[in-house]
Design goal:
This protein is an all-alpha fold. The protein is about 65% helix and about 5% strand. The two termini are about 40 Å apart.
Length: about 160
Amino acid sequence: MTETLHHKNYSKDERQSCWYSKSEYSTIKREFQETLKLVVSGKLDQRDDNDTERGHCLRGLEIRLFERSVERQSMRAQGRMLVFREQKIQEEQGITNDEAIAEEYTLLSKQCAFEAYNTGLMDEVDAFSNGSRIRINMEEKKRTSQQTSYFSNLFLTQG
């Protein structure tokens, strides 16, 4: 076991070296906004985290793209619809089964977890491939996302 200091016991220098300042957060935000602008304009269509000269990395920024935002909103709406449908069925049958309602949402949640897991696997392969980076342009990523959604939908219909 390794003992560590609680953050409240850090010296001022230790605290400054461990935590981002407001100006550092502003710089990070400005840089990721520049990266997103390049993606939207089509000037940055490959994710290659090994290219330090380019200075742009999409890892973690996919969620800020419009298409991904729409997907997330759609999933949330679908989750609400599933829950409301189950509640209506139960109301019509005169029963209350909280576990059945939770199960409806859990199925959708598992789909999201499955897609996140697959994305993580692709990132892991990308991060640890030595020199021979896997280059994924937006079309390939979109196709992979559609395939993942297809498999996720299969998973949902079997549940």
